[in-house]
Amino acid sequence: MAAASVGYDRMKEVKEFDNSKIGVKGLSDSGITTIPNIFVHPPESLPDIKSSSTCTGIPLIDLADVNSDLHRLKIVEQIADAARNWGFFQLINHGVPISALDQTIAAYKAFFEQPAEVWRAPVPAKLEDIPEVCRNEVVEWEMHAKKVAETVLELLCEGLGLAAGKIKELGYTETRALVKHGDVWVDVKPLPGSLVINVGDTLQILSNGEYRSVEHRVRANSSKEPSNLDYRIFQWG
């Protein structure tokens, strides 16, 4: 890093990369043999992943009985506790078919395999503007994501003693992650078909600091597959 930093203008290189509009995949496809400086972190900034007998993973919450009067209160307590103390949690039995998740990932992969000239900027597109290769899957995913978001936000609001539906913003990313819990970096290890929830900055602000946005990192993936992604993460903020 010391040698590479000589004459290195980070802002200039970031701007040049943004203006190229090729993204990371395009950069990889260009045949580069070294990682550009803008993607290299100095060793002292990298997380020290420690093993811990008390931190085996982020909280796992089962939504199978979320509509049951007998079990709902317990689920509310679990999800609120996870949001307060972890900022991340994992959902199972969330109602999204595994087939829908798999088809969505396959569609995203097909989209990013297309030439750069057919890509679109990150703004909501009209249905007819969504590339046909992933159109049906994107529409279906949005339907499922909205249902999960509404359910989770209802539970989080109840955990704060608020009326459900006061917080509605939800984003979605696919990545591999490490989560900071105390002084330990915990590797997120999702179960097949599960969804990982990240509280994020927006929900921390809207909950007046009750729910936590915690430090987290994207984990490096050595695979050359453009969508070899194991982690399905919802995020507010």
Automatic annotation (TrEMBL):
Pfam families xrefs: 2OG-FeII_Oxy, DIOX_N
Keyword Oxidoreductase in record: yes
Domain Non-haem dioxygenase N-terminal stretches: 58-117
Keywords associated with the record: Iron, Metal-binding, Oxidoreductase
GO MF annotation: an example: metal ion binding
Superkingdom assignment: Eukaryota
Domain Isopenicillin N synthase-like Fe(2+) 2OG dioxygenase residue range list: 179-225
Gene3D superfamilies: B-lactam Antibiotic, Isopenicillin N Synthase, Chain
Entry keyword Magnesium: no
Sequence similarity: Belongs to the iron/ascorbate-dependent oxidoreductase family.
Name the UniProt record assigns to this protein: Fe2OG dioxygenase domain-containing protein
Organism: Nyssa sinensis
